[in-house]
Fold these 2 entries.
Entry 1:
Amino acid sequence: MSRILLHEETLDPNFLPPKLVHRSAELQRLTRRYGESLSHGVPFHLQINGGIGSGKTALARRLGSDLERQGRIGPAPVKTVYINAWRRASDRTVALDLLRAVDVHLPDRGYSLSEMLDVFEQGVRRHPRHYLVVLDEAGALVRQETKIVYLLSRAAEVGLGSISLILIAPDDLFPYLDPASRSSFGPTHRIALAPYTRDQLTDILSVRAELALRPGSYDPSVLGQIARIAAPNGDARFALELLGGAAHSAEEAGRETIASEDVRAAKGSIYPTVSESQLEGLSTQGLTVLLALARSLRRKGATISSQKLRETHAGLLEEFQEKTVSRTTFWRTLKELDRAGLIGLEVGPSGTAAEVSMDEMPASYLATLIEERLGHGPATRR
Ligand SMILES: Nc1ncnc2c1ncn2[C@@H]1O[C@H](COP(=O)(O)OP(=O)(O)OP(=O)(O)O)[C@@H](O)[C@H]1O
Ligand SMILES: [Mg+2]
């Protein structure tokens, strides 16, 4: 059997993609801005804001790596120091990471912040560089009484060498900065990344799928399905996680291509969303429509047209020896299921037809749940 995940490491959140789709304008602007400043030997400080998975970390790392590759800019070449200040970070842990960047390994205890920074300064003298310090997940640190942001943003004045500081956080940290640091992080020193749109997520997914997966192992409709699921938060991280999960699910099932059902399985394992109690609250009408949908999707596809679904539903009612329902009732039921978050409904331009999706759990599993509930067990399953 041919594998699907040929280069799984390229789906890892820590993998830095060679090209950032839909962030090239931002990247270009920043590269130019840094080039101008650094060529005059002047640091540039920056804050990057944006929601989860909006590409903040990737943008900063890409910028750092691109600047490093340019070699000498002005008086010195750039070296990027990436520090994740998540959770238990303090000025001292940040200082330890800085020391590591200049090849000094101090024990965690016994040194004051200013002693550590003295040692850092000696290290900087041995390796003269312009240091681009990326302080990722800086929110908690800045909300504490931090001195290090001030020290790094005034590095030249306090004798720490040449340092540009990038602060990354979901929300604007300006209000939490001490007055002395604020002057370094004014409005022109801040970039806010918008959540990715569904189309942008599709593009990001296809570039990453090309890197990670065997050609022919996925259909564009699967990427579209994932983008649709991730679009409400514009979160590329979640989208890539789903892609990896779906690829795994297909491989585990011994298949050579990723199916829509694999995407649902991946979503269900990340966020189990549909509970049996949600099904309990549904009318028989709602259950039969959902079952028709689950059966159709179980066979094939990420979505089904409302027209097709209505036909399948009619067939199912016949099988259950129930009366058919009017178009209006069918439509109202779809709306109810949509409102309950059980299905997705995308109405086309004419307003009469729609694409119906169900991404919450594997369709085969949902079908079984409903069949049990309706008392039509596997015996009558088609
Ligand atoms: N424009 C892009 N092109 C290609 N891949 C991208 C792009 N933006 C983000 N990614 C990928 O999406 C994932 C999440 O991006 P990233 O880690 O930069 O988000 P973030 O904004 O830092 O999120 P968080 O707030 O959760 O840290 C990473 O794997 C990253 O490589
Ligand atoms: Mg990040």
Entry 2:
Amino acid sequence: MNGLPLLPERIETARLVLRRWTLADAEDLLAYAADPEWSRFLPVPEPYERRHADEAVARWVLEDWSTRPVWAMEIAGRASGGINLRIDHQHRKGELGYALARRHWGNGYMTEAVRAVIDAAFAALPALARVQAGANARNRASIRVMERLGMTHEGTIPHAPRGTDLESREAGVIYAVLREEWEQSR
Ligand SMILES: CC(C)(COP(=O)(O)OP(=O)(O)OC[C@H]1O[C@@H](n2cnc3c(N)ncnc32)[C@H](O)[C@@H]1OP(=O)(O)O)[C@@H](O)C(=O)NCCC(=O)NCCS
């Protein structure tokens, strides 16, 4: 225990349950992460194999919840995606990461889930001043999620790292919302 405030381990929205990952989720994760369309803009191994899913859930189970909460998104009882928030308490900011199984895309699920996580973050962390997220500039779906949440495009990084290949760089965008903006929009 480091005395830092904690976000809830379980968050419920109208259609979703966000909860901690368990080792038993590796199979559900593999079922959607082995899809190259899903990982197109993500820094994950390809081909994505069972050991990668096992390693990922083990890492998420062990993450320090005070600085890196990471939720499984449960839809119809199956782990169908994930959301994490890297919290930099010293600089009062959090950075989101998110991904959802392809079969569930386009239903507004990620917007709904991320909204609940940002709500929870500002509520649980009184000092938190901003929440940001980054995406590959060609990742329209991710950019739409940030726009739908009312986040502001703060800038473009011309040579952001792309995927797992450190030699490969591409334009990336940064979006953010400040606490005052979030509270006004709610
Ligand atoms: C990004 C992602 C999480 C969005 O999840 P989702 O639940 O489908 O998101 P939502 O339904 O809440 O919103 C998606 C928006 O993008 C739009 N969209 C979806 N696919 C799109 C595409 N291929 N091109 C352009 N827009 C697209 C949807 O129409 C919707 O916008 P709208 O409401 O204006 O119509 C999902 O596509 C995903 O997991 N992608 C792979 C992983 C990833 O890229 N994660 C983000 C890394 S930064």
